[in-house]
């Protein structure tokens, strides 16, 4: 049997079982059953996500378990920076045995929407690369500001957005008290940029209460 003949045989087999349709139908049901769970899609809206058939895979003579056919549907969002303007954020996989009987499935979201949009991890790293190590000592006047900024990042990653906004305000209030002249200017520039960027994201995407949004908007250092 030639490679081409084998490929045709395997392709016809998955068509016979209609595994692609089964995978899409099951994915639709998963999304429908979890439509009221705001955390299920890690911040993404269902209408943002584009399911695209990626591939079939045959796994033969596996070390654990029997042979399977795996159907993979990629989950994508639109992005001009990716091939075909589609950025992968997760996938759904359906596993069936060689007789077409479904034996398992997996739904995975690999990216958090807010972390993806803001790229907070890279900004955090860039800022902390310029952090003078002595600012982490309690007896330094910069310690409180550094602690507040760190809490902003921690709370944002934890999706506690109201708390994030509150600590942005505390950080800027402390900065007014301590005065910017007492900070390393390289670090301070990055910290201010981080606070303003995070504040703008919270208010633009309506992730905080109305009153806090007004506080962040009215504070010239926050937005």
Automatic annotation (TrEMBL):
Domain of life: Bacteria
Name of the featured protein: Uncharacterized protein
